[in-house]
Amino acid sequence: MTTDLRVVMRDRDGRECGRGYVSRELRVFLEKFVEVFGRPTEPIILRTGEVRKPGRRAVAAETETKPKRKGNSKMKMQELFPSKYLRAADLQGPRIVTIDHVSHDAFKDDGVAVTKTVLHFRSNGIAPMVCNKTNWRMLVALTGADDDENWTGHTVKLVVERVNAPGGKVVDSIRIHAAPQPKQTTKEALNDEIPF
């Protein structure tokens, strides 16, 4: 703002209520106004709706009369933007799942149409998971089958791990691991037949 321009802030009754701060948009507008119309002979007076006391935030009258929200107003991102595919944020700890079937769905990857493998699970309440290259290789190692049609019926463990993403960011990602094998009971271990 030009140094010879004087702006005075006044309340409804005409009393000066301090210098205050004006927004950048208002400051730019006033500078252009002075350039076009010249410097005013009198100070520019900005009137405020109410006097603000130091340390106290002024609240507009219409916001005071608005009813307050009842209940919990906090929302999580996955509640606001649900996905039909499993995300790392959806897993609440490791999960043992059995692959029901595999499909191939079309996606847009940076504007390019690509087909990705999607794992569907027998567990109720768990969404299908898009399989990336790392998880594909792990499934090949666990199942011994490079053909995804042969993965049906295999049980795996899903865990969330921190990984390096493109651009150097560290993000949570779902990783597939071998499911723990059920332990033999003592009765099964002692029931081994010894041929004589």
How would you describe what is shown here?
With 196 residues, the chain is an alpha+beta fold. Helix content is 19%, strand content 28%. The chain has helices at 24-37, 61-64, 77-80, 133-143, 186-190, and strands at residues 7-10, 44-47, 95-109, 112-121, 129-131, 155-164, 170-178. The strands form two sheets. Strands 5-4-3-6-7 form a five-stranded antiparallel β-sheet. The protein has a two-stranded parallel sheet with strand order 1-2. It is elongated.
What's the arrangement of secondary structure elements?
Layout: E1 7-10, H1 24-37, E2 44-47, H2 61-64, H3 77-80, E3 95-109, E4 112-121, E5 129-131, H4 133-143, E6 155-164, E7 170-178, H5 186-190
CA radius of gyration: 33 Å
What composes the largest sheet? Answer: 5 strands, antiparallel
Fraction in helix:
10-25%
> What structural category characterises the helix and strand content?
alpha+beta
> What's the number of helices?
5
Question: What would the keywords be for this entry?
Answer:
196 residues, alpha+beta, 5-stranded antiparallel β-sheet, two-stranded parallel ribbon, 5 helices
